[in-house]
Design brief:
409 residues; mainly alpha; 3-stranded antiparallel sheet; globular; single chain; 54% helix
Length: 409
């Protein structure tokens, strides 16, 4: 293949695949020709724009970037302007995300038009889009100013609300875009929503920044919410408004390892770290907090457990790190009300915080076996030559016993 010839995934007439970055002007021009073909066939084939957006986001040379900026992006903006209503929601959101990442004002304006008209408002990619905007202060402020008192619908509205809350806390906005009759009504609806915890949490986070007679009612709703996460957010809001009792509520949450990570962060934000209970500084408590943070990550369980407790604590030489550590086994419980069940798991904190789900059973394995499994897993993860061919509790215990004679392995 000649050096100037575009790679096969960008050949005219082919479907664009998620693949190598756009590394040459020739590849970028081929992509532009594909955009011309999509425009000619529109509204057919519009969903092909999503992988094209992904390919553009991987542009890797100045020459390709020039073609993308001058030729590809204007064509995509025109396609959104002409055929936006006919696009699938996911495709449109991928394009909006591209416009924000590229800081393409024409594309961002098309996105704002879609928001005003209530198009594509339920996709979860709105969270990523507004997170990107929050990282670009000037563009975020332009978006807020352009939308004015517009209260977007669906998930888009919640992501926008969360961005506005963050900007208000930083003092970047003169007033909250939801501080209007329509906005406060939307906050009320979100506080009543059972669709997603994030909806009510975001609404509670806005309450220090809205006025009117509704504010007290909304604060009361948030503080009486059935979910602990929302009550915690309500305490943060009330404390920011000068309510000293709310600081005590945050200190109470800080004593519970399930809520402690968030409560401690809020007390730090409010310059009230002196209210923390002394127990939060205990290493075993901090181990529980670390496990909750790991479990709450979207790539894991995505939310805190119902219960968490340290069931074993010991100092030992840890072969994967080749040094002594204080290790903790942390038991945690999740409720699954939709099937009326609860499940118990166990993980380790002290080296790599993790839980070997499906491999470690807290009901049938003793603690030495669980440490052994975690040791094997970490050695494998580090490509350590001591890693066994087959992971097992017995092999892990033998490795630990070599370094910790007499420790019960």
């Amino acid at each position: 293949m000649e050096a100037s010839e575009p790679p096969p995934e960008f050949m005219p007439g082919s479907r664009i695949q998620l693949g190598p970055a756009l590394g040459s002007a020739a590849a970028a021009r081929c992509l532009v020709r594909r955009l011309d073909a999509i425009e000619a066939a529109a509204p057919e084939g519009l969903d092909e724009l999503a992988p094209i957006a992904a390919a553009i986001s991987e542009v890797s040379s100045d020459e390709a970037l020039g073609v993308v900026w001058n030729d590809a992006l204007p064509r995509i903006v025109d396609l959104v302007a002409e055929h936006g209503p006919a696009m699938g929601e996911q495709t449109a959101l991928y394009l909006f995300k591209l416009f924000v990442a590229a800081q393409h004002i024409g594309g961002v304006e098309e996105m704002l038009g879609a928001i005003r008209r209530g198009r594509h408002h339920d996709g979860y990619l709105w969270g990523d889009i507004f997170d990107q905007l929050l990282a670009n202060r000037a563009l975020a402020l332009m978006v807020v100013e352009s939308l004015g008192r517009c209260v977007p619908a669906g998930y888009c509205g919640v992501a926008y609300l969360e961005m506005a809350n963050a900007l208000m806390r930083e003092g970047a906005l003169p007033e909250h875009p939801y501080d209007s009759e329509e906005g406060r009504e939307q906050l009320r609806d979100l506080l009543l929503s059972t669709e997603d915890i994030w909806y009510a949490q975001s609404a509670a986070g806005a309450l220090p920044f809205v006025g009117g007679a509704d504010q007290i009612e909304l604060i009361t709703m948030a503080r009486c919410h059935p979910l602990s996460e929302v009550r915690l957010e309500a305490a943060r809001a009330a404390a920011a408004m000068g309510d000293l009792e709310a600081l005590e509520v945050l200190a109470h949450h800080a004593a519970n390892p399930v809520d402690a990570g968030t409560a401690i962060a809020y007390l730090q934000e409010l310059d009230s770290i002196d209210r923390l209970p002394i127990d939060v500084y205990d290493p075993a408590f901090q181990a529980q907090v670390a496990m909750v943070a790991w479990l709450s990550d979207p790539s894991e369980f995505g939310q805190p457990p119902a219960e968490v407790a340290v069931v074993d604590r010991r100092r030992l030489f840890w072969p994967p790190l080749n040094r002594e550590i204080e290790a903790f086994l942390v038991r945690f419980v999740y409720d699954f009300p939709e099937v009326d069940e609860r499940a118990t798991f166990i993980g380790m904190v002290g080296s790599v915080t993790t839980a070997l789900l499906g491999e470690v059973d807290p009901e049938t394995m003793d603690h030495a076996d669980i440490y052994g499994m975690h040791c094997c897993w970490e050695l494998e993860r580090m490509h350590d030559p001591r890693a066994p061919t087959v992971r097992s509790p017995e092999t892990g215990r033998r490795i630990l016993d070599l370094e910790n004679p007499g420790a019960g392995f």
